[in-house]
Design brief:
- The structure is a single chain.
- This protein is an alpha/beta fold.
- Helix content is about 25%, strand content about 25%.
- The protein is built from 4 helices and 8 strands.
- The strands form 3 sheets. Strands 4-7-6-5 form a 4-stranded mixed beta sheet. A two-stranded antiparallel ribbon has the order 1-2.
- Helix 1 packs parallel to helix 4.
- The two termini are about 30 Å apart.
Length: about 170
């Protein structure tokens, strides 16, 4: 195991004092900035394709859409609905936004090894702000059974797929 490389990422969450995720054989060196938004993330993924990283893991935040979710719960997306529009510049709308299964499985295993629970589901990605007061849109989110909502995940999965970079997310 001496030649096995690991990156340790530590995050402080309200319900989990310290969550340590060890991702082995991913992207070294790792630089994580969870405050950057899509206008910076997309060109970054485009530029990363020049060095062919083994994987990119997005650590972000989202809004939970289910009553069983609490603030600070981890959500591991199994897919994302492309409601934001940016990803249409990379693929037609019928191409789904999917994470790298191998990367999501590695993250899942690592989280479980830390004896931490998480949720899985589909994330609806939108560029809309203040959607919470749009009753028609909220009804639509229930109809499509989205588990969470954010502004980045579908775009990142789509651009990662376009650039042949295994991409995942933990929200």
């Amino acid at each position: 195991m001496a030649n096995r490389r690991s990156t340790i990422i530590t995050s402080t969450l309200p319900q989990v004092p310290i969550l340590t995720i060890i991702i082995t054989q991913v992207l070294l060196p790792v630089q994580i900035q969870t405050t950057i938004q899509v206008p910076i993330q997309i060109p970054t993924l485009d530029l990363l394709s020049a060095i062919s990283p083994k994987a990119v893991l997005f650590l972000g935040k989202c809004g939970g859409l289910k009553k069983r979710n609490s603030i600070g719960d981890l959500i591991l997306p199994i897919g994302a609905i492309r409601g934001e529009g940016t990803s249409n510049d990379y693929f037609p709308p019928e191409v789904p936004a999917m994470p790298s299964f191998a990367l999501q499985k590695a993250v899942s295993t690592t989280i479980r090894d830390q004896k931490v629970d998480y949720w899985t589901g589909t994330v609806y990605t939108t560029n809309r702000r203040v959607w919470e007061f749009d009753l028609k849109f909220k009804k639509y989110l229930k109809k499509i059974r989205a588990y969470a909502i954010d502004m980045e995940t579908a775009t990142l999965f789509t651009v990662g797929f376009h650039n042949k970079i295994p991409t995942g997310a933990l929200l």
